[in-house]
Amino acid sequence: MNTFLHYKLKLNLKQKLQIYNQKILVGISGGQDSLCLLQLLTDLKQQYKLRLGIIYIDHQLRYDTEINNKHIINIAKQYNIPSYIYQLERSDYTENHLRNLRYQVFIKTAYLNNYQLIATAHHIDDQIETCLYHLIRGSSIDGLNSLNWYRYINENIKIIRPILNFKKSEIMWFCRYYNLPIWSDYTNSSYIYTRNRIRQELIPYLQSYFNHNFQKHISNFLDLAYLDTEYLRQNTIKIYLLIKHPKLMAINTTILLKQHLTLQFRILRLFFYHNLKLNIPYSLIKNIIFIINNNTEKAIPYQNIIIIYQTPWIYIT
C-alpha cells in the first residue's frame, strides 16, 4: 500500500534525485529514520529497479551494542538484502570525528562493492539541527547548509538524502503504521552530546517563544542559501582553473583581484585545499588579500609551508 510518504519520496526522486536502476547502500542504525527510508526504498525497489544493501557502524559506545548488532542482522534477513556491519574500536573521539569515521567506512564499502549511491536518512529536523550546531560553533554559509540532497564523492559514488524534506512526526507515523522493528538509541536523550541539547531544548524553545513556524522558515532559508552557494561554488572552480599555474603550486592574481571579495576568499581557500588538503583560517586569507591589494611582495610562514607573493603570482613552497 502506498502512503502519502511514498508519493512524497517519488516526487523527491523526480525533482531532485536520480536513482533508477542503481545499486544503493543504505546507512541504518535500527532507529525510526533509517528504517523508514529502508522500507520506502524496498517498496519502490521493483518500480525503480533498485538493488539495496545496508551498512551499520558500531562505535561500541552503548552497553546494548551486541544486542543492537543482532537486531541489524535480523533486519537484513527480514529484507533479504546484503548487510555490512562494522565494529570500530571504542574511543573518546568527538561527535564530528565519529561521523567522519562512519562516512569513510561507508565510502570504502560502497567502492569495494560497486554501490553507486549511499543513502542516509537525514530529514528536515536534522537539517535545522545541523544548521544551528554550525552557527553556534562559528561557520560560513557553506557550513550552515552542509546537509544537502546529494553530494558527489567522486565520479562513481554519490551520497543522497532522499527524505530530507520529511518531518520527524511523519517518520514516526510511518513507523507505527508499518509496525517497523525500531531499536531506540538511549544516547539520543543524553545531554552529553551538543546536538541532543539543540534538538530537545533549543529548537522547542525557539518554536514556543519566537515563531512556531521556525523550522519552515529555516528550511526555506537553507534552500535559498544552497542555490547561492552552488552558484558561487561553480564560479569559484571556473576561475580557479583559469588562473592556476599549469605546473607549480601557484595562482595568478591579475584576474583574482578583478573578482568580488567573496570569490577571492573562495578561490584562495580552494587553492590551498586543492594542493595541500588544507583548510586555512579566515584571518590568513584576509592577510593574503591585503598583501596582494597593496602589491607587497612577501613570504608568510604557516605551519610547515611558506606562502610567497611575487607579482603577479602566489606560490606555496
Automatic annotation (TrEMBL):
<dbReference type="InterPro" id="IPR012094">
    <property type="entry name" value="tRNA_Ile_lys_synt"/>
</dbReference>
<feature type="binding site">
    <location>
        <begin position="29"/>
        <end position="34"/>
    </location>
    <ligand>
        <name>ATP</name>
    </ligand>
</feature>
<dbReference type="InterPro" id="IPR012795">
    <property type="entry name" value="tRNA_Ile_lys_synt_N"/>
</dbReference>
<keyword id="KW-0934">Plastid</keyword>
<dbReference type="InterPro" id="IPR014729">
    <property type="entry name" value="Rossmann-like_a/b/a_fold"/>
</dbReference>
<keyword id="KW-0819">tRNA processing</keyword>
<dbReference type="GO" id="GO:0032267">
    <property type="term" value="F:tRNA(Ile)-lysidine synthase activity"/>
</dbReference>
<dbReference type="Pfam" id="PF01171">
    <property type="entry name" value="ATP_bind_3"/>
</dbReference>
<keyword id="KW-0547">Nucleotide-binding</keyword>
<comment type="similarity">
    <text>Belongs to the tRNA(Ile)-lysidine synthase family.</text>
</comment>
<protein>
    <recommendedName>
        <fullName>tRNA(Ile)-lysidine synthase, chloroplastic</fullName>
        <ecNumber>6.3.4.19</ecNumber>
    </recommendedName>
</protein>
<keyword id="KW-0067">ATP-binding</keyword>
<dbReference type="InterPro" id="IPR011063">
    <property type="entry name" value="TilS/TtcA_N"/>
</dbReference>
<feature type="domain" description="tRNA(Ile)-lysidine/2-thiocytidine synthase N-terminal">
    <location>
        <begin position="23"/>
        <end position="201"/>
    </location>
</feature>
<dbReference type="GO" id="GO:0009507">
    <property type="term" value="C:chloroplast"/>
</dbReference>
<comment type="function">
    <text>Ligates lysine onto the cytidine present at position 34 of the AUA codon-specific tRNA(Ile) that contains the anticodon CAU, in an ATP-dependent manner. Cytidine is converted to lysidine, thus changing the amino acid specificity of the tRNA from methionine to isoleucine.</text>
</comment>
<dbReference type="GO" id="GO:0005524">
    <property type="term" value="F:ATP binding"/>
</dbReference>
<dbReference type="GO" id="GO:0006400">
    <property type="term" value="P:tRNA modification"/>
</dbReference>
<keyword id="KW-0150">Chloroplast</keyword>
<keyword id="KW-0436">Ligase</keyword>
